[in-house]
Amino acid sequence: MKIAIDAMGGDNAPKAVVEGCIDAANEYEIEIYLVGIKNEIERYLDGVTTKKGKIHILHAEEIITNEDAPVQGIKQKKDSSMVVGLKMVKDEQCHAFLSAGNTGAFLAGSLLKVGRIKGIDRPALAPLLPTVKGGCMLIDAGANMDCKPKNLIQFAIMGSIYMEKVEGISSPRVGLLNVGAEETKGNELTKQSFELLKKSNLNFIGNIEARDIYSGICDVCVCDGFAGNVVLKNTEGLASTIMTLLKEELMKTTISKFGALLLKNSFRSFKKRFDYKEYGGAPFLGINGIMIKAHGSSDGRAIKNAIRQAKLLYDNNCIERIITDLKDTGVNDIE
Amino acid sequence: MKIAIDAMGGDNAPKAVVEGCIDAANEYEIEIYLVGIKNEIERYLDGVTTKKGKIHILHAEEIITNEDAPVQGIKQKKDSSMVVGLKMVKDEQCHAFLSAGNTGAFLAGSLLKVGRIKGIDRPALAPLLPTVKGGCMLIDAGANMDCKPKNLIQFAIMGSIYMEKVEGISSPRVGLLNVGAEETKGNELTKQSFELLKKSNLNFIGNIEARDIYSGICDVCVCDGFAGNVVLKNTEGLASTIMTLLKEELMKTTISKFGALLLKNSFRSFKKRFDYKEYGGAPFLGINGIMIKAHGSSDGRAIKNAIRQAKLLYDNNCIERIITDLKDTGVNDIE
């Protein structure tokens, strides 16, 4: 498998990206094209040998930063690591593209440069949320604002395939994000989507509420990109606020500081259970190529896990499977 | 001020409700009508004298439970504590109604029995979320699913009045819940609402993301009831999951148990900072009477604080102020 990786994207680039690539190439038989400013990449790669995979450098002069407007960035910075990487997939020289850079540019670039799978109206960004029982795919988490029921069904199909093939869950439980469990609850979109999901051959478990996501009630949580983005960011914000406030309390007195010291391992073990880095990145499903968006703050481990994700998507022919399932379910006959 | 209180609503009713009423009547010059099954209320009230306020019992034979369908419950259980309490406001014998019971029935009953303020198209349920800097009003948190921009402007006006008059914040900062800070972000609803909010005379600070709510970026967070409900339930679910997992870690070893013991006070102080009970209940704003929905798990303190809320809404003529502000802003000339 060949994968193009944006060496310049993310808060810790290129160091963390190169480190993740080295780890991955030691473990997997893959060919990595690290795209970006050559001598900056070489700083971390020089003299390194890898056990199983190969790493090539593909020079690209420009960088799309978080300050760049997405579409403009893609259109104007033609020699950026993002655009050059995407072009590798478009030209079928690579099977996958991975970036920890500007999310908007990543989404716009995937659509503009690589394009959709035939039959998918709107590709969806689909991160995994940590739950008590493992990961729950949130699809869509922000790529599509005003959605139609048909879009949500396509999200559900793609999410199910991902959770089965990449996470190894047989017959993944699909839940529809809603304001209550009853069938009649929700807005027009969820009411109509409920009917369609019920008729589908997915393992649809019905409406779920945002409070139940973390208990692991479902494997795929389907919603429009507005609601999904609210869940994702609310989760990030609340978790970080709770940790900040807790730290403040623990540093208040000598006794509490001593107590916190005794609990160092417990806190570390706790933190690990809520660590997105274990899951790698968020696939952008529905693009005619494997697209993985890693978190901006990814370290080497997160990048390595994102490469692993891309490899599983490739090894399990997930894109082909999406195309087949779309035909089988007849979702595209729905208006 | 006269307030009707559903003595039978909530997980700890009627005990917690009666206790909260006694505390409130010791502190405020109010007249409380405790509505519910007389002898059950008397069990906790017998022989009690209150310092400043008065408590009356108003017998009602039936109870609307959480299992009752909202509208059906209101229509069929005419002699329930909920319906009899609401009727006290409708008949202008009380200024306010408070319940910790079935939320759906509370919302439906408020609309059916008491009705909207003239000029408010859709009343909104508006709880306060805890933030690092105090409470942030989330409006609407689930009463209205598919909203129009006009509804969101009305929510913003009502929320601002509440935060100014009840929480004492001058010129409350209004944020529009969205997927990004930029003006062009969001779905059709938020894009159109942004334009209207920008033109209003509210202290509109622009789009806010769900991650920023807890840092106290705004005093009023405006959104449709679907997104608001997602935020509210996501917050509840995540906070409780984090606490459960943390407790599990702390109970794992002898050392961690000892550390946890030393941190008992820290955890208590931390918990208090995230305690909704401090805020009382969620006002249902836009109804032609003061309506407070207390949390189902309310204890006496939460009930007392909810009564305090109702009193502040009354003392500051908030309903009249909503009517005036609606006229001034001309929001109702918008289609």
TrEMBL record, chains A, B:
Keywords: Acyltransferase, Cytoplasm, Lipid biosynthesis, Lipid metabolism, Phospholipid biosynthesis, Phospholipid metabolism, Transferase. Pfam families: FA_synthesis. SUPFAM superfamilies: Isocitrate/Isopropylmalate dehydrogenase-like (SSF53659). The keyword Lipid biosynthesis applies. One of its GO terms (molecular function) is phosphate:acyl-[acyl carrier protein] acyltransferase activity. It is found in: Cytoplasm. Pathway: Lipid metabolism; phospholipid metabolism. Its EC number is 2.3.1.274. Signal peptide: none annotated. Its main location: cytoplasm. It catalyses: a fatty acyl-[ACP] + phosphate = an acyl phosphate + holo-[ACP]. Homodimer. Probably interacts with PlsY. Catalyzes the reversible formation of acyl-phosphate (acyl-PO(4)) from acyl-[acyl-carrier-protein] (acyl-ACP). This enzyme utilizes acyl-ACP as fatty acyl donor, but not acyl-CoA. NCBIfam families: plsX. This is Phosphate acyltransferase. The gene is plsX.
